Amino acid sequence: MNIVIVEDDPQIASFLSRGLRAEGYATSIISDGESAARAVPTMADDIDLVLLDLGLPLRDGKSVLSQWRAEKFVKPVIILTARDEVAEKVKGLNAGATDYVTKPFSFDELLARIRAALRTYDSASLTTLEVADVTFDMLSKVAFRGGKRIELAQREWSLLELFMRNPHQVLSRIQILNHVWDYSFDPGSNIVDVYVGYLRKKINISGHEPLIQTVRGAGYRFIPPSSKFS
Ligand code: CA
After folding, report:
1. How far is ligand 1, taken at its centre, from the CA of residue 62, in Å?
2. Cα 139 to Cα 143: distance, rounded to the nearest angstrom
3. For residue 54, how far is its CA from the centre of ligand 1 (angstroms)?
4. What fold does the segment set 2-125 form as a domain?
5. Cβ < 5 A residues, ion ligand 1
6. How far is the CA of 9 from the centre of ligand 1 (A)?
7. Domain residues of the chain, as ranges?
8. How far does the centroid of ligand 1 lie from the alpha carbon of residue 116, in Å?
9. Edge-to-edge strands of the sheet including 134-137?
10. SS3 assignment for 146-192
11. What's the CA gap between 129 and 222, in Å, rounded?
12. Considering the entire predicted model, what is its pTM?
């Protein structure tokens, strides 16, 4: 677990770093806003969490955080600040902070918040399906393709979830009907074809390869773009 500490006060930074290392975390320290804005997104894959001071030289922590989030840095960020006003907290959370700790804080409290933020982040990644350039968030029922947000109606997201859990497999109309609708539904109905049509219209966005293939006489198959099966 790698924690980046963005803090210009050398005493606080080294106190945090020593404490976190004693708990088994790896740490690195960045001491100004400009360097933090540049460095963090480029090492995003190696970072598990960031502790971010708001009052930083060269650039304010809040604007740094907004830039990270705009650049799709999604890891947890806990703001550390002496500014104990509700308005400041709200601004920090709106800028994309995961949590907020007010100085002076106890190390144990900070540690508990770090653990909670890491746990929440981990469980969120279990609720997301990803196949090629399509992401589906099973909690919010929103899909993303190539970074574009796709709103789905209830049957559409059930259908997409079924396809994404079974990529490359041919799913018959009856299988789809049984998963997405209930068993009492008339199997002679063309509702599956109608909804596959709706879903195709939404996820086949221009500039991206089509995803749902009709397999004549058998059903449908979800083919990730550029896969060896296509
Ligand atoms: Ca500071």
Report:
1. 12
2. 11
3. 6
4. Rossmann fold (3.40.50)
5. 8, 53, 55
6. 6
7. 2-125, 129-222
8. 24
9. 128-131, 134-137, 142-145, 148-151
10. CCEEEECCHHHHHHHHHHHHCCCCEECHHHHHHHHCCCCCCCCCCHH
11. 14
12. 0.59
Range among 74-78, 84-88, 91-95, 177-181 with highest mean pLDDT value: 74-78
* CB-CB neighbours of 124 under 10 Å: 13
Q: Band of the pLDDT at 225, cuts 50, 70, 90?
A: low
* CATH classification number, 129-222, choose in 3.40.30.10, 3.40.50.300, 3.40.50.2300, 1.10.10.10: 1.10.10.10
For 34, other C-beta atoms within 10 Å of its C-beta total 13
102 alpha carbon to ligand 1 midpoint, in Å? 12
What are the tokens at 209?
């390869």
- Mean residue pLDDT across the chain: 87
Tokens at residue 223, please? 């083919």
